[in-house]
Amino acid sequence: MELVLSNFDLYLSAFRLTIGLFLVSAVGSLLLGTLLAAMRVGPIAFMSKAATVYITVVRNTPLLIIFVFVIIGLPKLGILFRSVEELGISSFFFRACLALTLYTSTFVAEAIRSGINAVPLGQAEAARAIGLTFGGTMTQVVLPQAFRATVPPLASVFIALLKNTSVAYAFGILEATARMKYFTNISGNDLPIFLIFAAGYVVLVEIISFGANRLERRWRVAR
Amino acid sequence: MRLTRTKAAVAGLGLALSLVACGDAGDDESAGVDVEVQEDAGSEFDDGTRMKELADSGEVIIGVKFDQPGIGFKGATDDMPVGFDPELGKVLAASLGIAPEDITWTETISDNREPFLQSGEVDLVLASYSITDERRAVVGQAGPYYVTGQQLLVASDSDIDSLDDVKGTEVCSVTGSTSLENIEAEGATPRGFDTYSECVDQVLSGAVDAMTTDGAILLGYAAEHPDELKVVVEPFSEERYGVGYSLDHPEMCQWIVDTLTAAQEDGTWEEAFAATLGASGVETPEPPAMDECPAA
Amino acid sequence: MTVSDTATSDNPHQPGTDDPLVVLDHVDKHFGDLHVLRDINVSIRRGEVVVVIGPSGSGKSTLCRTINRLETIDGGTISLNGVPLPEEGKELAALRAEVGMVFQSFNLFAHKTILENVTLGLTKVRKTPKKSADEAAMRQLKRVGVAEQAGKYPAQLSGGQQQRVAIARALAMEPQLMLFDEPTSALDPEMIKEVLDVMVGLAKPEQGEPMTMVVVTHEMGFARTAADRVLFMADGQIVEENTPEEFFTNPRSDRAKDFLGKILKH
């Protein structure tokens, strides 16, 4: 315990990295997941099929395997994403976010698809009837309502994402779980260390839950 | 039969392991340590000691690493772990009158060594277990029986050849390990992985600039990939491997120190080293002097 | 040839004779085994108000929805201004902007205010600047009598008000044609009149051109007052086609007599 408290800057910087992984992957998953959901419900059969296959394959693959693929497999093929380093982003951070995004976006897509299904068909028909294209219908009418219906399931997806960032500990990212391993490795008494790191995750999850509740209340659609 | 299978498996593991033998040595010329099992060992120890209990029961559980070539390694198809640590484990067991084939080997990873000792899940830990004050506060550590130091494994064409060169580079090791923290202190970005083999892959693919851990482990990997990898830099830390035991049985310390000192003096220690860590080409070092056991 | 066989030859609005706006030519549609539209041939003139009536399941709603291709058809062609309806895509979207539609269940955008409901098509489809879109929307809301509700959300309005907003939303696009798919069927009785009044105002304006309208309805009073022509459908076919006067006083087919007998008795 004292070990962590006397090195509290290490604790904080590790959680900063956890939050960084979470935020970047959350935004990435939201974008990719929305695109996948739109492809899946969209009128183009080929795109719909492609999105369905992607979601089926990736969603049913353990996250660890996706990490192994992106961080150990791709480099063996010479794919290292070193170019992001010119933007000042470490390629490890980028690849960890990529793995998390590839995985989480499938859950986001399914949550949004269920949200889309919860929007009455008449809404899309009315949108098409005034001359909106498929894209306009989705962005102006269907998705804004779908997102509202999607807040509770998306909150669960993002809470899972936050905790899933810990998988990166074994792939070169010194986030909270890796830092915890460092402390437990040099200390003999692990339990207090587990607890103080668990507390960090609990606080972050509570923040997500709180935000989701606020959004849900503010966005409630009257029908 | 068992011996044949073990040899076949070992042959597949490469040079670093090829000379390591299984326990029932003597009828195999590439054997490790030919331990002499103490007969009637129970009578050697005082009543009430843990050593006597173990000797009388004829069973001992030893925690070792399964994933460190040269130190403690067990392939998926192997019956027994091989490496310097298991060899010394056999020496300790023999002094209790327990034959190598009667030892129960348990994998201990860095995180569970203390809990396993505290709960009695293992009797002894020989698992590249560096002696530290923090650890000695919760478990016993007798030794050091071996002193090594942290070095760097880099690609053959790497420019890194001094510790100053690692500043600003990415260096991998096992997540949470002391080696990783040491290299971070040298100004490198630490990249932790679950296993050494994943870390080696990162060096081979160029995803990181170097791997760091105890020199002995690195030499094992360099020997597996002589064209692609090399070990550089003088050891820049001192890791003193000790034998872990439970503080419930402080009497074990002196027994461990005495038994290993005897092994150092009669050449068994050198024999074990040459057959395991020595296979990667390093010269057998002088055995270290061991710490005094704490007063009971 | 554009009129079905049962049509009368003395129809005062004989379609196809001059500049038809909408032409349905041998239109067929199935829902699985159900043959919902059988060889439909209709031509609608500019400014004409066509009321489609018939028992439920007769295919009248489907007919209405095929005209802006919310329902696809299996055979025949539908053309607007002489051009066949395009496949789903930008072209069709552009064409739909020319065809206003009012639904049975209003279908106002639940997450947008009344004003935003009306301006959405203007700003996103017509690319009208926000300020003039707001002005045009307010004009239409005033026209249907709900201007003071502009800042509210659909759920805060009564059914009658919502349906009038839906009409304003369609009118704001200045369509060439308005489709009404049972616009009063989901309304409480006391609200039906306020919606029908707006529709009559479109069909028989005090000033300006009448709107071209296709109205699927059960409101026989509206058909009598506002329709130029009545189409009577049953089993996916247009069984009878006539002026409202002729149709209501002197129906020719047994199906129409039977239907009128049932609904006019009450």
Structure characterization notes:
The complex is a heterotrimer of chains A (223), B (296) and C (266). By secondary structure, chain A is an all-alpha fold. Chain A has a single domain, classed as Orthogonal Bundle (MetI-like fold). Chain A has nine helices and no strands. Chain A has helices at residues 2-6, 8-41, 45-59, 63-76, 91-118, 121-129, 134-164, 176-186, 191-219. In chain A, helix 2 (8-41) packs across helix 5 (91-118) and helix 2 (8-41) runs antiparallel to helix 8 (176-186). The radius of gyration of chain A is 20 Å and the shape is globular. Chain B has 296 residues and is an alpha/beta fold. In chain B, the strands form four sheets. Chain B has a five-stranded mixed β-sheet with strand order 9-8-10-7-11, with helices on both faces. Chain B is elongated. Residues 1-31 of chain B have low confidence and may be disordered. Chain C has 266 residues and is α/β, with parallel strands linked by helices. Chain C has helices at residues 60-66, 90-96, 114-124, 130-143, 159-172, 189-203, 220-226, 244-249, 254-264; strands spanning 20-31, 34-45, 49-53, 75-80, 83-84, 99-102, 177-181, 212-216, 229-234, 237-242. In chain C, the strands form two sheets. Chain C has a six-stranded mixed β-sheet, sandwiched between helices. A four-stranded antiparallel β-sheet of chain C has the order 2-1-4-5, covered by helices on one side. In chain C, helix 5 (159-172) packs parallel to helix 6. The chains are: A mainly alpha (223), B alpha/beta (296), C alpha/beta (266). The A-B interface holds A 3, 71-72, 75-76, 78, 80, 90-92, 169-174, 178, 180-182, 184-190 and B 110-111, 114-115, 132, 134-135, 137-139, 170, 172, 175-178, 180-181, 189-194, 198, 201-202, 204-208.
Radius of gyration of chain B (CA) equals 19 Å
CATH secondary-structure class of chain A: Mainly Alpha
What is the CATH architecture descriptor of chain A? Answer: Orthogonal Bundle
What is the global morphology of chain B?
A: elongated
Are there runs of chain A of 5+ residues with pLDDT below 50, and where? none
Q: How many strands of chain B?
A: 12
How many distinct helices of chain A?
9
User: In which range does the helix fraction of chain A lie?
Assistant: over 70%
CATH superfamily of chain A, called what? MetI-like
- How much of the sequence lies in strands of chain B comes to 15-25%
The number of distinct helices of chain B, counting runs of at least 4 residues, comes to: 11
What is the SS-derived class of chain B?
Answer: alpha/beta
- State the end-to-end distance of chain A: 53 Å
Radius of gyration of chain A (Å): 20 Å
Tell me the domain tally of chain A: 1
- What ranges of chain B have pLDDT less than 50 throughout 5 or more consecutive residues? 1-31
Q: How many domains in all of chain B?
A: 2
Shape summary of chain A: globular
CATH topology call of chain A: MetI-like fold
- Helical fraction of chain B equals 25-40%
Question: Cα distance, first to last residue of chain B?
Answer: 46 Å
